[in-house]
Amino acid sequence: MRAITINHVAEAAGVSIGTVSKALNGTGRVSFETRERVRREAARLGFVPRTRADSGAAVDLAYSVGVLTSDSFGRFTIPIMLGAEDTLGPGRVTVLMCDGRGDALRERFYIDSLMRRRVDGIIVTGRGNDARSPIRGTGSVPVVYAFAPSTDPDDYSIVPNSQKVGALAVDHLVGGGRRRLVQITGHESQAATAERHRGASSALTAHGLQWAAAPQFGEWSERWGREAAIRLVRDGVDFDGAFCGSDQIARGFVTGLRESGIDVPGQVGVVGVDNWDVMVEAARPPLTTIDLNLAEIGRRAAMVIINAINGEQVPKGSEKVEPSLIMRDSSASPAPPSSATR
């Protein structure tokens, strides 16, 4: 004889797992009719909620959350998912990840699939944090946009404070004695690039300084970082600090400087973005970086969904999560400071 679970009750009653939990535990906003239907089906199936040994209280809470992403590699999505799972609780959440690959038809298919599965909430995220079109057809299911914000101001989005990312990097480099800074980053058209540059430039101005060269825009890759470093040295640009738009770019930049005979951090201090352990720890020297705190974005997204399941309204607008500076060897203060050019 099969064991009856909360999933069986949800299917029989035609509601989500979260609604079953609320109906049986007497929590959250559930209509009288729905609560009674859930209880009838639970009784018919012989479902007995698990209880906490020390209190006897029913705790068979479980959530089913869909994650719709365009991040095929999971570089940004996985930390967000882990943060959400930490908030929802180990063993209390089933996460259904759907890779829409940025394609509208694929996304529509996955949204319909998630709705048929009666998920309790949907987190929409992506590979970048450019604003994206909102998803439709989710009815009363709460939707939160994490990292990749919605263009609809009535939606709720949680994003990194990109201007603060740039400001943290510049303040750190200048605080370490660097005065002639360059910026090497990704595509100029992307929101993160523009916002980080704006924050970095404002911080530089506040220190009474200017960029040693125009921003270097290119790919989000090690190859581009290496090419940019070699080009700046070849062109005779006098710089002693570099703010790189990602850890991939930063690692390539350090490689290009080393190939050009420039010591890091002795002659040039380097700061990246993302705190991607594969990149920062493997670089020589290990990279100082700005952590976007993606797990915190996931935690906050999950909390909004939990609150919505319990009857609260999903807020509107955008919330920014503050980044953190993670110091390693690549930005150690120069002693004595010297030019990057020979």
TrEMBL record:
Gene3D superfamilies: 3.40.50.2300, lambda repressor-like DNA-binding domains
CDD domains the record matches: HTH_LacI
InterPro entries: HTH_LacI (IPR000843), LacI/GalR-like_sensor (IPR046335), Lambda_DNA-bd_dom_sf (IPR010982), Peripla_BP_I (IPR028082)
Highest taxon of source: Bacteria
Listed Low complexity bias regions: 330-342
PANTHER family: LACI-RELATED TRANSCRIPTIONAL REPRESSOR, LACTOSE OPERON REPRESSOR
Protein name, per record: Transcriptional regulator, LacI family
Protein source organism: Arthrobacter alpinus
Phylogenetic placement of the source organism: Bacteria, Bacillati, Actinomycetota, Actinomycetes, Micrococcales
